[in-house]
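Morning. Coffee machine broken again, so started the prediction first thing and wrote up yesterday's gels while waiting. Chain of 181 residues, entered below exactly as on the submission form.
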Amino acid sequence: MTIPALWTIGIIAAAAVPTIPSTPDLGKAEARCRPGENGPSLLLDIVGLKDREGRLKAEVYPANDQDFLQDDNILISQGKTFRRVEAPVEQVATQNGHVAQICIRVPGPGRYAVSVLHDRDGNRKFGLSVDGVGFGGNPKLGMGKPKAAAATMIVGSGPTRGRIIMNYRRGLLSFGPIKAL
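Came back before lunch.
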């Protein structure tokens, strides 16, 4: 499932679960940046990590509400853009551990919706009270997923640097960046 395919406890109404079996490798082969990547790609600086535990999962979607955070199997079967890069935080984090870098190749220049999951417990799904989430454009998070337009990044013909601020649960129903690193 994509991040977060299903949010719990009032964050999003549950989405219909597809009957297509999930394949965790979909979108990964096309997404991996090559050494010295010079084609269209996103070089993401992921800031505000709570710790160096677990894995980071960055995903790229079409920049429209219908496809944003849609199941990867559905997007790929329909020939739509989907890219995913996963890495242990320990491998991509800087020395202080609160910043990480991930590179994702995209099909070409244009607008893409981007999401990042800090899967702290490594269970491959979004845990409301444990995990962190961030989006391109760094929208303020409320009771539902952000609109695709708020989570969109524009990619040029070469590597394009972007910054994503991670958000973690604070209190009963709010999400936000951690206050002090």
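DSSP finds three helices and ten strands in the chain. Going to sketch it on the whiteboard this afternoon.
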